[in-house]
Each structure stands twice: as structure tokens, then as C-alpha cells.
Amino acid sequence: MNKQRVFSGVQPTGNLHLGNYLGAIKNFVDLQNKFECIYCIVDLHAITSYQNPKELRSNILETVASFIASGINPEKNIIFNQASVAEHSELAWIFNCVARIGWMNRMTQFKEKAGKNKENASVGLMVYPNLMAADILLYKATHVPVGEDQKQHLELTRDIAKKFNNDFNSKDYFPIVEPIISKDYPRIMSLRDGEKKMSKSEDSDYSRINLKDDKDLIDKKIKKAKTDAEPIPSEISGLENRKEAFNLISIYASLNNKKIDQVLSDFGGKNFSTFKSKLSECVIETICPIGNEIKKLLKDESYLYTNLSKGSKKAQLIAKTNLKEIYEIMGLTKFSL
Ligand code: AQP
Fold first, then answer.
1. 276 CA to centre of own chain
2. What is the pTM of this model?
3. Is the Cβ atom of 10 under 6 angstroms away from ligand 1?
4. What's the 234 CA to ligand 1 centre distance in angstroms?
5. Of all atoms in ligand 1, which is nearest to the CA of residue 186?
6. Are the C-beta atoms of 277 and 48 separated by less than 8 Å?
7. Is the predicted pLDDT of residue 239 greater than 70, yes or no?
């Protein structure tokens, strides 16, 4: 029986936003009271597309600061960066040999990110989900909090675990992970286009609320957020085909831990300008204290590096033990210094 353990990661690609917070980091914070939690800054995933080295270094620190500022306790949990634990890359290679090409061809995120220029995308971008499976299974994690966009990659992780357990006759060696995805608001969409998810790499800064945005900028972004001419409906059916309206109401509901229909019963019949000023207030109330704390923590790089280094050492201990077992199961021998 595998011990219950949470693992999740965030890419240090800058501009952490409200979608990352509501879709993932808020859950990371809640789960630390129930599970042993390991949270990773997945810098090796970030380099699947080119990263300027100076910016990458500062984005790694900013992600650590964002975790701590959001309420993740670095003493109680493991916070570390992927490049510090070489076993992630070793296990990813093994999983490159376990996963099938047909499975990789089905990954929709690769298709979205590579776009029409697929021939020019890095090989890393294509096999990224195998590295993600390695991140999780290296720690034999049982639960993974993620946004809905990562659901398909978690299904792949389950398939890899089952195939490995079966191929090497090691029933139950790797746990079959359970995703933890917020049911009511699984994907926060762009403020400019309700069809696209809120994303760090979107060109328009007005498409997202960054964790470091100040009060005035948040207010301005919400005022400019796309809506439609209809008032807020009283019933959920009135939000059909109104993606932007649905998104703003979901954000409000998520921030206030309310169901969408509760929000509709409070605001039904009102116009969007009234609603937007309330939404602005609660985004500011949640995000600004986190942003201020991030800015404060970034002034103390040595505190951030100390936590990262401590967490990396704790992660290495688990990773080395498990990889040794995996090599043994597969008949591989690893001589050490
Ligand atoms: N819009 C979103 N709504 C809900 N959850 C989201 N997540 C990301 N965007 C949303 C969740 O945040 C966690 C960390 O994501 P990531 O930074 O590692 O990768 P990503 O999903 O590729 O994020 P972005 O913002 O879209 O980055 P870019 O633009 O660099 O690709 C994950 O759990 C993710 O589900």
C-alpha cells in the first residue's frame, strides 16, 4: 500500500496569474493540512521552449516566492526545483521507453502549443508529458492537484504506471494517481477571450491578472474585461453561450468559495458594471496581499535559495531511494562513486 502523498509543479515561465492561483496553488495550500506535499518548480519543463537564462533564474526565484507568499509552508512541505534532482530526467528516459508513440500523438496540449509549426517544435515539448509522469511517479505520489488543462497528462501518467507495473510484473509498484481538479471552476479563461485559457505566455497583459499586479491595474483590467450587453441572469441556463460572462462569474464564485447559482441569485438582473466593481474588490482582497508578500520575499534572495536548497536535499533522498528500486526492478545496474 503506497503512502498518500501529493505532488504538483509549476513552470517558472514568469507572470504567475489568477488562473495558476485558483486552478492549482490555492489547492496546494489547502492540501498541506491533509497530506505530505511536494511542490516543484519545473524548470526542466520550462526549457521545452527557449528561456533567456537570466530571466529563467529570476523566474525560478519568483515562483518559490509565489508559493511561500500564497501560504505554502516551506518547513512543513518540500519546495524544490526539478533541475536539482537528476533522477527526474533519468526516470523520464525510462518512461520515453514505456510510453507509446500513439499515446504521445494524442496529447492535445502539444498540438495547441506547437501549433501549425509542429516540425519546428522541440522534441522536449513532445515528450514533456513523460517527464511530468516521471516527476509524479518518482515520489510515488498518489494525488496531483492541477488545473483542468493537465487532465490528459495525468491520464497518461496513469497509463504509464499501469504499463510499467504490468510489463515488469510489479503489481501496485507505481500508484495510479488521482487528479485533484476543482469541480466548479476547473479552468480560468482569458479576460479578453472566453475561448482561451488565462495563460502566462499570452501577449496581451490585459488577458490575465498577474499575482504581482497592483490594485489600480487589477481594477483597470477587470473594467476592460470582455462581457456582453445582457444583464447577469438569475439562472445558470442564462449563461449558455456567454463564455466571458461565465468566466467572470466563475472567478467571483471561486474567490468567495460559492457555487455559481449562489452568485447568480445575489447578482441576477444587475448589470455587469455593478458586478465588476464587486469582482474587482474581491480579486484585490485576495491577490494584492500575495503580490505584496512576493515583492517583499524577492528582496531576500538568500532566504529563497536556502529554502530551495533544503527542499531539494529532502527531495533527493526520496528520489534516489525510489530510482534505485526502479532500476533493480528493470534489471539495470548503477555503480556510484
Ligand atoms: N487558466 C488556468 N485555469 C486553471 N488552472 C490553470 N493552470 C494554468 N493555467 C490555468 C494550472 O496552473 C498550474 C501550473 O501551470 P504551469 O505554469 O506549469 O503551466 P501551464 O498550464 O502551461 O500554464 P500557462 O499559464 O498556460 O503557461 P504558459 O503560457 O507558459 O504555457 C497547472 O496545474 C495548470 O493546470
1. 26
2. 0.94
3. yes
4. 31
5. 4
6. no
7. yes
